[in-house]
Specification:
- This protein is of the alpha/beta class.
- Helix content is 25%, strand content 26%.
- Strands 6-7-5-4-8-9-11-10 form an eight-stranded mixed beta sheet, with helices on both faces.
- α2 links the parallel β4 and β5.
- α1 packs across α2.
- The longest helix is centred in the first third of the chain and has 11 residues.
- The protein starts with 14 loop residues before the first strand and ends with a strand.
């Protein structure tokens, strides 16, 4: 774990728990994942929407980037999919970079994930090295086959300094109507610039102004079936040169 020591300490996210055990952000009055089944939503929207795990096949390196770490559910599910991927290559590595302004305390992440026993070992492993006092900056948790790069701070500022390029993006901020800063035209342009040619994104929202921002950035867009109560989701590809 590499932790900045002189950077400002971030205020943790505050949640309330619904009667059905779903964490809801007090700041945005929005649930962290689908009430029907958060893991099912993650697998449908973010993994399948990006062609995963099939795109892992035969790759010795793969980079996922995400806006909004939240409960960590997308990360934990991605690690599971990586470790169960078809045609694995020895010594291959998944790097997962996530931008988060208000990190949840680890006990809340563990409570949120407790409903999915298949993720328990992964959750416990990575939360064991979670920073006890999250500060703005870049934190790494490394395992033999996976690197979690947690970028804490305002994504509108932090993404500009990120040197990586993602093969796949998870755009998973809170609802655009409640958290428009994480869906701005400038931020979507930065996402596009930090996507490999042929790389993709997926998101649960099909809000018109978000689609326009992504299209203006340069992505080729496609709607696909949504999850649960949502009729549609959105995915896109960065064209090859």
């Amino acid at each position: 774990m590499c932790m900045p020591t002189n950077n400002p300490l971030l205020s943790p996210a505050e949640v309330q728990w619904s009667d059905d055990g779903v964490p809801v952000s007090l700041a945005y009055d929005d649930p962290y994942f689908a009430r029907e089944d958060g893991l099912g939503e993650t697998r449908h929207v973010f993994l399948s929407g990006n062609g995963l795990p099939d795109r892992f096949s035969g790759r010795d390196r793969f980079q996922i980037a995400e806006l909004g770490f939240g409960t960590g559910l997308n990360f934990f599910a991605s690690v599971e999919a990586w470790r169960l991927r078809p045609d694995p290559i020895t010594a291959a590595r998944l790097t997962f970079t996530s931008f988060e302004l208000a990190p949840l305390p680890p006990h809340d992440m563990a409570r949120a994930a407790a409903r999915w026993p298949e993720l328990l070992a992964i959750v416990e492993d990575f939360l064991a090295d979670w920073p006890s006092d999250p500060r703005a900056g870049v934190h790494h948790v490394m395992r033999q086959d996976v690197t979690l790069e947690l970028v804490l701070g305002d994504a509108n500022q932090m993404l500009a300094g990120w040197a990586g390029n993602a093969d796949a993006w998870y755009l998973d901020g809170f609802s655009p109507a409640r958290n428009p800063d994480l869906w701005s035209a400038d931020l979507m342009r930065q996402v596009f610039e930090r996507t490999t040619p042929g790389g993709t994104f997926a998101t649960y929202t099909v809000a018109g102004w978000v689609r326009r921002n992504l299209a203006a950035a340069g992505f080729e867009l496609e709607k696909f079936p949504g999850y649960g109560r949502k009729r549609e989701s959105l995915r896109g590809t960065k064209p090859l040169p």
